[in-house]
Amino acid sequence: MENLGVKYSGPPMQATTDGSDHNLFYYELRAFEPQAGGPISYQLIIDISYRESWRNYASASFGSGRQVEIIQLEKNILNCPSVTTCMLEETLEVPLEEEQIVKALKQRNALRVKLKAKSGHRSVVEVPPSYLMGFYAAIVNRQG
Predict the structure, then answer these.
(1) Residue 137 belongs to what H/E stretch?
(2) Which of 30, 95, 115, 131 is the most buried (most CB within 10 A)?
(3) Looking at the domain covering 5-143, what would its CATH class be?
(4) Mean pLDDT of successive 10-residue segments in the chain (144 residues)?
(5) Domain-by-domain residue ranges, the chain?
């Protein structure tokens, strides 16, 4: 049975973890407001692509030190330009709390998410305050 309620989704944005096109990620904020009432749930969806071997991202931490487990939604091999090098992609869901978004907005800061992989890789995703504000305002304005 499908969840009934209102789904919110911000536009997908592209960035890079190291300034190259070999470590790209797309992110978007999503939220779900249950029809039956209750709190709105927030998620940061991240599609991260890179070369060589699987990183297997497992957790995320925030500036506050709070750590959460990542939900891995998908893993894909995008292409293999050579026998030894493939472009790989992981689609991740990072659960967020409304207070994290509100705090970043009040301080006019980006929402900084540090991803940690089982491979030892670490990546940082920063969601700018302008993106947070537009997304959160759409939810607040809809609620009245």
Answers:
(1) helix 129-143
(2) 115
(3) mainly beta
(4) 80 76 85 88 95 92 88 93 86 95 93 94 92 93 69
(5) 5-143
